[in-house]
Amino acid sequence: MTVVPALSMTGISKAFPGVRALDGVDFECLPGEVHAICGENGAGKSTLMKILGGSYRPDAGAIHLAGKAMQFTHPRQAAEAGIAIIHQELSLLPHRTVADNIFMGHEIARRGLLDKAAMRERAAELLRRIGARIDPQALVSSLSIAFQQLVEIAKALLLDTRILVMDEPTAALDERDSRTLLNLVDSLRGDGVSIVYISHRMPEVTAIADRITILKDGRKIWTRPRDAAPISEIVRAMVGRDLKDFYPAAPASMPREVLLSIKGGTNGALRDVTFDVRAGEIIGVAGLEDSGKGALAQALVGDAPFTSGTVALRGQPIALRTPRQATAAGIGYLPGDRKREGLALRQSVRDNALLTLRSMVGLLTRPQRGALADGVIDERLRAMDVRAADFGQEIGTLSGGNQQKAIIVRWLAQASDILVFVEPTRGIDIAAKAAIYETMRVFADSGRCIVVVSSDMPELIGIADRVLVMHQGRISGDVPRGASEEEIMHLALGLADAPSEETGA
Amino acid sequence: MTADIVKPKPGVPVAVLLAGLSIGFFVVVALATGETAQLSGQGVTGLLQRMVALGLVAIGQTFVILVGSIDLSVAALISAVAVLASHVMQGDPAMMLPAILVCLGLCVAVGFVNGALVAYGGINPLIATLGTGLIIQGVLAASFGALQGSVAREFQIIAYGGVLGVPYSLLLLATLSLCAAFVLDRTLFGARIYAVGGNPDGARLAGIRTERVILSAHMVASLFAGAAGLYLAARLQSGTPWIGRDGIYDLESIAVTVIGGTILAGGKGGVAGTLAGVLLFASLDAGFNMLGIDAFLKQVLRGTIVIAAVAVHAVRAKGHVA
Amino acid sequence: MTLRTLLATTVALTFAGQALAQDFNDPAEFKKQREQLSMTPQGPEGQPWAQHLGDGMVETAKYKKDGQVTLCFSNAGVFNPWRVVGLNNLNAEAELHKDRLKELIVVDAEGKDDKQISDIEALVSGGKCDALIVSPNTTAALTPAVEAACAKLPVIVFDRGVNTSCPVTYIHPVGGYGFGITSGEFIASKLKKGDNVLALRIMPGVDVLETRYSAAKNIFDEAGINVVGSEFTGSDRAKTKSVVEDYINRGEKIDAVWMDAGDTATAALEAFEDAGLPYPVISGEDQQDFLRKWQSEKLTAIGPSYPTYQWRTAVIAALDVLDGKQVPGPEWVLPQPAITEDVLAKYIDERMPPLHYSLCGCQELPGYPERWGGK
Amino acid sequence: MTTVPQTSPSRHRPARIAVNAGLVIFIALYAAIAFLQPNYLEPGLFMNFLRRAAPLVILACGQLYVILTGGFDLSMGAVATLVVLAASILINGDPDATWAVIGALYTMGIAVGLVNGLVITFLKVPSIITTLGTMLLVNGLALAWSGGAARGDLPDNFRNLGRLVWRDVPLIGTLPLAALVLAAFVALAWFGLSGTVYGKRALAVGDNPRAAELAGTPVAATRILAFVVSAVSAVTAGILLGGFSGVSVNAGEGLELQAIAACVIGGAQLLGGRGSIWSAVFGALSLFALFTLLNLLGLPQALRDSIQGLILIAAVGATVWRTRRRT
Fold first, then answer.
1. Do at least 3 CB pairs under 8 Å connect D with C?
2. Which domain holds residue B63?
3. Distance of CA B6 to the CA centre of its chain
4. Mutate which: C236, C350, C375, vs D, most D CBs within 10 A
5. Cα first-last separation, chain C
6. Is residue C6 pLDDT above 70, yes or no?
7. Which chains touch A (3 or more CB pairs under 8 A)?
8. Number of structural domains in chain B
9. CA-to-CA distance for B233 and B246, rounded, in angstroms?
10. D276 to chain A nearest CA, in Å?
11. pLDDT tens for residues A133-158?
12. Which fold has domain C176-302?
């Protein structure tokens, strides 16, 4: 007996001017199945999901839901057909309540009049179902990213959702919240929901997916059950080659003199943070979402400065009250949210790479002088292997990996000594990840240093020379290279003095 | 997920604070200048009557700003409606209803064009509505010679009549304000406005036909401008092509809306704040009169107060504004 | 329906340019004002602000009030230099009557009808005023408010009128037709049949300005003088100069320039200077800059006026009413003199700013010339 | 994850498109003018056209700085009025005072620009509201100072800045001084945007102020400087206006919206991030050519407003359409 797939997409093709984004892709998802899609950026995952969600219309191909042919011209029709998509970019209303957000577009109303009480009640029910203890009347702007993600999921569950698409749902979540989410996915599967799961985090994919489909360059490579798809196979299929040496080797020499020294750094989110960063070192910072690891990065780059404590650069006390001061002191910043904080999307690749250099030279400097010249920066961009047909093209048209590399070039051009990276590989494909790790190592080995804040535990373990673990605004521990995820999790949960079983999961 | 996220305790709303300040200013000035008669029922009614025209326009403006747009064409539309109403009526009470219908029809049309340009044409709302405003203003001035007329005496009751000492115009403003507040707070349309203004992409993905919401908000703004135009026609007996422009209803309606705490980006704010902003302007008008402040100095003070009033709540905002 | 109405009005009216002129062409009023221009005024010699044309007087005994009084003035606004000079006249006149006047309350409507109505209502309900002077922003709009005020206290209206006879008196100079007649006839007398005149106007649709043009246009048509263009300048000097330059560049021969207000007359003349052309015959107004230019360049010109001294008359009338004296009414028509070449020198005062209106009747008032911006 | 693959061939260069849009519209309109009145092709009349367009072009250049950084400046018309009134009061007919007074005028302008910039960056009041406030404030101050009407006189050496025309100049026939001022100002404005790093900083700030801040850009200073440049352009335009036609209380009325419209017609994007000095220059010339054309056509004054509105919508509509077609 064959089960009728809840979703079946056959022969889907879609072309954009000059590009075939999808070429005859087949994809199906059974009821109660978690089906992961993997692929590099530009492989066509997002396009496929936008077609499913009704944002794009396919050039060719058919969509069947439970055997019935469908055609969507507006996201609304897809939603009505039982498809819900949780996007990577949160689509919430910060100034409205949680209940308002959950019911956005699907308010309970009679003849145009809202039934607020009913919505509150139903919202509370949904939040309970996913184990989120959030007051439906709280303002979304008062929630952390992780909680906002849960609101998004509640939103999706509101509808009679038969197909739930999750696009990088854990990208903004730390380890603990990710696990909660995966448990939730598991329980939804039990309820018979079909889940299309898109992620770059391989361990997650292999842990949760029933089947895995690989896309590359707009084509489907294969679909296999989880057991027939070890991570190495997936990676090879995605990038078309083996990636054995994913993380660069540890440095040959020992860390040298202290570059940056923080003593008693304290502000609203941090308490008494003290540590040194040495030349040649990559320091990882781990912690849960609200542990203060993000705040530490912001403090180091002067965005949310320490209110007390001292910062010394090569032994000289310095002030880091604004990002500009930090930049002048040689500290560079790769923000976690590239689009909002990292890039001027409508400016060219070159302009984005030159942004800091241009900001730090004298106002009347000629724009083509010395290091500011097109040729010089182009050389640097090429050296970093930023792939663009023309460095004069808008950076918004580049893939995430290339965008990230362009930001790194920005700081290399400025000759910064200390780089603060936040989630440097979030939403970036594997090949670009490897290149970025390599760059980080080379940078550190040249006698400079990197502080990398990440929620991706394997990444920290693989790249960092030591990892500072944060808990409730304090540094709860400092583990050397080679530590296990369990050790770090233990410290992150604030259990340093009382080891417990639950962290081992 | 162990933390309990609870509803925050609300502080004093902007609207209440602003209204309190305005009334305080008015009372203090009246006492200080010995104009105690202004604190009588009649004086206060006069003060509130100053709110009507700007109040009506500003409520409409609140809708478009909430949805993330803006409407600069309201001033021209007010003039057009006032002129058209007086022309169609020609003093004949029997023509009151047709005149009102024609005017509201015009508003719907203008709102539709504005909304279509912004929502479907993708044209920046400032430019789109500046353009339609210019077009209306031009056609109006060009054809005004043949659009003479005056409204019916009976129609002027809207502006001059009242019940139990309360002018109908105030009742009109109060009713329409309550309706607008109700629509924003309690109806599907209101929820959609906040959704589209707060996060257009999110709203679209949630299945909301954002273009329609923007279009509708523009129609609401135009209709409210039309209501202001009709009120002014009743109050002034006949319209001229300049009443909207001379009243600076475009910029002032935007100013009071922002003063009232509605943010220009959209998605946050409401009618109560806007009305408080209108009350501030009315109190300033009345207060400056009592103080005998010279017209030019008045302009200086008003400019300063506009900036200061917005700065009070803007200064705490995080991030950049442009 | 709306669309059709709109379309119909647009098509029908836009392309029928004369429509405007006809609305303000009242032959009876034209004739009346022409007669008034040649009447001999009654009243004190040499004080045109206290004079009047015609015989009508009104009794005011019922308004008599002893002791110190408070006058209230609802002003349409001070949005042009004419109104600035006028307001200074009014304030200075009030100063002359310090012993009788407790207070003069001036309220400015900033050119907004709606605000002026509220202002009047507030003044009346405030209970401080013994008499109310109104300079209405718009005739029709202010009528109901003035009517309501009449029921409570004596009202004097000046400049623009209201559509009610309830005010004690309505003070105004002869009027727009008179202005157009004086300037039109002068230009017609200096030009030949078939000569060209360029009409420069402030804005369309304002009654007091439309009647000026309609009167002059009638006269030009009668004399066979060709109006090559009628342009609106919005009182903007740059625009005035540009408009005239455009006509010059187009190769039009312009023999005369007629203006419905003189505040940009010197700008119009500069266009001829810059093009290296001789000055045309011109009608301006009584502004100092125009008069000085006229004198220094020996222009063929006339300066009709819409005298600002009527602002003085308003205070005089209000106090007379509170004294219970007879005042000219229900319309107090003031003489409307024009400045001609023979009296030109008398009106020039080098101390005064360029846009000072010479027929202010203010030379003897307290604070002259500083109050009016003079040195 | 981006939806547009990295090999996308649809690249475009904002600056070049802006030049094209503004320049093309200008050439078309000027051709129409010349068709109606061929002597506009003579150098003399073209120079005169430039002389009269100079204030608007200069204002548009200043406004462009602000638009690039994502803001609006509604106060520039009021500043121009202030300049004209203040000049006549301060100089009061004394030619020796001219240059000192011009210095004072620039000081006043810079002060207004600083106030705008500081309020916007530090009090976080949106620029449309801030400059609406300063518009009222500056206009009120100017009128209060002058008493509501023109006072004093402008001597010839001041007037010449906007009025003097050299005749019998080789090649071009006549040369207005204002055209030289225009050329100099445009050159300076161009230098500011393209000859220094400022222009790119401004674009980045207008595009994404948060990203620019984190990359070390002095966002506040960049914004404030834009408002100062805008105010300086308003002072310059005011001097030319006063020179061209003399003192009046409404010298600058409505110019702010015309300047914004000019930039937009030239292809600059409201709310920042796109545009070049040529957007402002050719946008303003286009707008002024449109005014001239409508005058020549002899349309009723009022309808000229309508046509201006139509053109404005059409110009922006065309840009939107082009952008949409590209993606």
1. yes
2. 38-309
3. 35
4. C236
5. 61
6. no
7. B, D
8. 1
9. 14
10. 13
11. 888 988 888 887 778 888 888 888 88
12. Rossmann fold (3.40.50)
